[in-house]
Amino acid sequence: MAKLEDKQIRTWIKNNIRFDAKSDSNGLYIRYRETDKTPIWFLRYKIAKIEQRLIMGRYPDMTLADARREAAIHRAEILKGHNPADTKRERKRATAEKAIIEKSAQTVSELVDEFFKRNVEGQLKSAHARRLRIDKYLIPAIGKLRIKSVEPMHISNMLNQIIDAGAPTTANDILSNAKQIFNYAVKRQIIKHNPAAAFDSSDAGGKESSRTRYLTHEELTRLFRAMQASDKFSNHHYLCTKLLLLLGCRKSELLKAKRNDFDLNKAVWHMSPDNKTESPIDIPLSSSALALIAELKQWWIDGNEHLIPAMGIRSSKRGHVDEGYLNKPIKSGVFPLMGDIENFTLHDFRATMRTHMTSKALGVDRFVAERCLNHKIPGMAGVYDRGDYFEERKEALELWAAFLATCENGEKWNVTPIRKAS
């Protein structure tokens, strides 16, 4: 039987001539079926009188000369009593084990990078906030460790550090993130067991429930007095915090706000759809809010489009100040001056506004109050009532501003509430 030639093989490929097997002699064959993208080299041989077949490679990656040389090596192994198929499987297993060992040698920081690229970035709106949280808490604690070296003890120490820093909710979030990241490592066969698997919320920040904390009129008065008195609380901190109280928006929504989103002539904030409800909304601005925004616009950094631009050491790629810009000075400089009161967070400002608005003192309709917070109207009312309550919200926010003014000035509230429609 004539041996194969390169020219002949190229002709078969060019003319799309398909076949099951063409022999080159001594058990070496080439195959080019309809299902084959390129021709495949294989070797037929017998071990203990049982015919076997070994796939060696593809043409032209493996040339005719390469195939003959490889076949000769395999035939020599067969004469020694070795099965080249077993050798190939062993080689594949060794390569896979080597890859796993190399992966295991990676650090947790490298694992986090891979996890985010494959599972988070471009897929979740919360990707940026989640990465910031991980970079702040998880990476400093275990980022330099080899993936295979991480043990439950390291997870426990990390959670305890976060709890001791007074951030139980963050501890829960980091635990959840750690479980996802190490589960990914298990699926990738980098490790066999997830070092965070045994932990639950009781080991982190505890079971979370909806917050019901709000600040009373008297506590708001203390807050304003403490913000004015604290030497750790700048005038810029004061303006931002007061505006957050006046608007009742989420902190992230105000930090992301652009200067051009605020129309001072029409007294409207055109909030972008980049918010929790994922829908744009026009927020009426009270006269007090307008004055604060006009003053904040004077804190402009050339080229920065944010209302609250990043400055000095707080400069960042995001352009606005980071999430802790108000939290830290309130916790360290304001709260200690407020006397013996229950702890609160900036997010509690929303519950504070909602509670006072719908109280007898202000008398705002509950649907209007919900829209002031940019909440979707719940239940069937939300399905059929598509009104945006703009004028009603404008009146309610002016009333709320007047209420806060009494707190700021240490006065009592005695203004006639909004009369609800019957």
Summarize the entry for a quick read:
The protein has helices at 6-14, 64-79, 84-104, 108-119, 127-142, 152-164, 168-187, 217-229, 235-247, 251-256, 287-296, 324-334, 348-357, 366-372, 379-384, 390-409; strands at residues 19-25, 28-32, 40-47, 50-58, 262-263, 268-271, 281-284. With 422 residues, it is an alpha+beta fold. A four-stranded antiparallel β-sheet has the order 1-2-3-4, with helices on one face. It has a three-stranded antiparallel β-sheet with strand order 5-6-7.
Folded structure, characterized:
- With 422 residues, the chain is α+β, with helices and mostly antiparallel strands.
- The chain folds into 3 domains: 6-102, 2-Layer Sandwich (Double Stranded RNA Binding Domain), CATH 3.30.160.390; 108-203, DNA polymerase, domain 1 (Orthogonal Bundle), CATH 1.10.150.130; 217-409, Orthogonal Bundle (hpI Integrase, Chain A), CATH 1.10.443.
- 48% of the residues lie in helices and 9% in strands.
- It has 16 helices and 7 strands.
- Strands 1-2-3-4 form a 4-stranded antiparallel sheet, covered by helices on one side. A 3-stranded antiparallel sheet has the order 5-6-7.
- Strand 5 (262-263) and strand 6 form a beta hairpin.
- Helix 5 (127-142) packs across helix 7 (168-187) and helix 9 runs antiparallel to helix 11.
- The longest helix has 21 residues, at 84-104.
- Mean pLDDT is 85; it is low at 380-386.
